[in-house]
Specification:
The complex is a heterodimer of chains A (435) and B (170). Chain A is built from 18 helices and eleven strands. With 435 residues, chain A is α/β, with parallel strands linked by helices. In chain A, strands 6-5-11-8-9 form a five-stranded mixed sheet, with helices on both faces. Chain A is globular. Chain B has two domains: 86 residues, NADH-quinone oxidoreductase subunit E (Arc Repressor Mutant, subunit A, Orthogonal Bundle); 77 residues, Glutaredoxin (3-Layer(aba) Sandwich). The N and C termini of chain B lie close together (10 Å). The chains are: A alpha/beta (435), B alpha+beta (170). At the A-B interface, strand 3, strand 5, strand 11 and helix 14 of A face helix 2 and helix 5 of B.
């Protein structure tokens, strides 16, 4: 079943099959729905065999980067005698993205089972689930589910009598977008400021507490039990377009659509079908103007670019943007693009950890310049200045927060230039008063 | 509906980590290979007990975890959810980031300020009942506009709903 809307016939509900079904939240309820069979199966396999199955499924990281999951797991050293850690990234903070929240609040055991399988595969006896501080309901549900999983023997010193140990610790964040970046997250768990770390060393060599570590997104881990149950080949077969993008993907849709919410699609489904069939299209009398398809950190697409776009990693790139976390921000013809781009820049300026100059200064100054334009005080040279700043914010910092701020600015100026010009020429009334 | 314990900036610091709270913190130690890793959970405990995190409380946390007060302050000030000054009995956070902005969050924010009597964002109402803060993405963009009051997460708030919602928080 879907949530908050019923499942659309064009969806492929795998992860979201039990969204909205409160009975799926308990251990027994999850077992009745086929839960924990994958973990039992995994415990009878070798870690190498699990990794091969996941590699064969084609599963790629669902947090935004799209890195092949099985390959990531295979980077963990073997027989090194050190403690290994699994970190589940539940710091979902990318504007437009709200899928991990639903996985945790409706199907906590789906995630716990995925964590347990992944931990066993990478030789970890402890998994930290890092949940953003604002997610109070997912935190409550996950905390109760973890306690229940211990009581039922799915976690602890002897998981289902296998002799394997697995502990899950839930770590609550405290309000910082940047902690969703994997190295910042490790620092945050260690009790530090959430500043990203320089790589190398990569987490698989020296990650959390300087030990070999794998960090996976909630949706990635929640997909793993299904792959174990039904086989990597089944998962690989869920593909409508490019064979490099397989499985199902939860797409969060928000903004100006009739039915916002999460939709689970088979990779390669068309964006048009999603927006106009599943989400019911725009509000009455409105037309589509723009979409930011991958969470706010990717280039803006025009309505024309969405026409032929297929929703998979390659399909969105071919249309000028990125699938990212698949949080789609939909804007209709009533939208002031300059105002929305300024609002996004302000988000990044607020969330910059401030350790890299290009990001600290770049996010702040692009925000101020956009504010000046919106106040009717912009100069003709401001657009070139914004593009030049954006150039210096791209590919030059420890993490990609600054690149993420530049992406909507650059694509916005390229694709919606007349709207900027209208503010610069005075043809449009100021939208902001200058402070 | 949890209300926070009201603290005063000039009250002498009574230790937080005694009795049950101390026991709860010590129960976390085996879950991490370092004591420092218990810093975020320890700060949450302080805020739950006192409503905010004062400098003497930071010094106490430092003492308990074997850190310096300056280090603890550096961490506290990095994260937006830790309060470094007292706030109203009910702390309200409203998301106005782009997706919610598109759906009218600014009008909800104006209604919150009007109905609570807070003169501006970050300020506490004269009766001490509310503080309203504008925050970045709460991660519920499909349920615009979400607000949080203390630990309660409320979805799909409109300006019209604001007065009724606030009645539940005395």
């Amino acid at each position: 079943m879907g949530y908050p809307h019923p499942t659309h016939p064009k969806e492929t509900p795998v992860l979201s099959k039990h969204f909205g079904d409160a009975g799926a939240r308990t251990f027994d309820g999850w077992v009745q729905r086929g839960g924990y069979a994958a973990l039992r199966k995994a415990l009878g396999m070798t870690p190498e065999a699990i990794i091969e199955e996941v590699k064969g499924s084609g599963l790629r990281g669902r947090g935004g980067a799209g890195f092949p999951t099985g390959l990531k797991w295979s980077f963990m050293p073997k027989g090194d005698g050190k403690p290994h850690y699994l970190v589940c990234n539940a710091d979902e903070s990318e504007p437009g993205t709200f899928k991990d929240r639903e996985i945790m609040r409706w199907t906590p055991h789906q995630l716990i089972e995925g964590c347990a399988i992944a931990a066993y595969a990478i030789g970890a006896e402890r998994c930290y689930i890092y949940i953003r501080g604002e997610f109070t309901e997912p935190l409550r549900v996950m905390t109760a589910a973890v306690a229940e999983a211990y009581a039922q023997g799915a976690l602890g010193a002897d998981v289902f009598g296998s002799g394997k140990r697995l502990d899950i610790v839930i770590h609550r964040g405290a309000g910082a977008y940047i902690c969703g970046e994997e190295t910042a997250m490790m620092n945050s768990i260690e009790g530090r400021r959430g500043n990203p770390r320089i790589k190398p060393p990569f987490p698989a060599q020296a990650g959390l507490f300087a030990m070999p570590t794998t960090i996976n997104n909630v949706e990635t881990l929640a997909s793993v039990p299904h792959i174990l149950n039904r086989g990597g080949a089944w998962y690989k077969g869920l593909c409508l377009s490019n064979p490099k993008s397989t499985g199902t993907k939860l797409i969060s849709v928000c903004g100006h659509v009739q039915r916002p919410g999460n939709y689970e699609i088979t990779m390669g489904t068309s964006m048009k079908e999603l927006l106009f069939d599943m989400c019911g299209g725009m509000k009455p009398g409105r037309t589509l103007k723009a979409v930011i398809p991958g969470g706010s950190s990717v280039p803006i697409m025009t309505a024309a670019e969405t026409e032929t776009c297929l929703l998979d990693y390659e399909g969105v790139v071919a249309c000028g943007s990125m699938l990212g976390s698949a949080g789609m921000i939909v804007m209709d013809d009533s939208t002031d693009m300059v105002y929305q781009i300024w609002r996004l820049a302000r988000f990044y300026a607020h969330e910059s950890c401030a350790q890299c100059t290009q990001c600290r200064e770049g996010t702040a100054w692009t925000t101020k310049i956009l504010e000046r334009i919106l106040a009717g005080k912009g100069k003709q040279s401001d657009l070139d200045l914004l593009l030049s700043l954006s150039e210096n914010m791209t590919g030059k910092t420890i993490c990609v927060l600054s690149d993420s701020c530049a992406a909507p600015i650059v694509s916005g100026i390229q694709k919606f230039r007349p709207e900027f010009d209208a503010y610069l020429s005075g043809a449009r009334q100021p939208a902001l008063a200058m402070a | 509906m949890s209300g926070t314990t009201h603290g005063h900036a000039d009250a002498p610091h009574a230790p937080v980590f005694t009795g049950n709270v101390r026991a709860r913190l010590e129960a976390l130690f085996p879950q991490y290979p370092t004591k420092q890793a218990c810093l975020l959970p320890a700060l949450w405990m302080v805020q739950e007990e006192r409503g905010w995190i004062s400098e003497p409380a930071m010094a106490e946390v430092a003492e308990v975890l074997g850190l310096t007060p300056a280090y603890v302050k550096g961490v506290v000030t990095f994260y937006t959810m830790y309060h470094t000054h007292p706030v109203g009995r009910h702390f309200i956070q409203i998301c106005t980031t782009s997706p919610c902005n598109l759906c009218g969050a600014e009008a909800v924010m104006a209604a919150l300020l009007r109905e609570t009597g807070c003169v501006e964002l970050g300020a506490t109402s004269p009766d001490g009942r509310f503080t309203v803060a504008e925050v970045e993405c709460l991660g519920a963009c499909g349920f615009a506009t979400p607000i949080m009051i203390n630990d309660d997460f409320i979805e799909s708030v409109t300006p019209e709903r604001v007065a009724g919602i606030l009645q539940g928080y005395k």
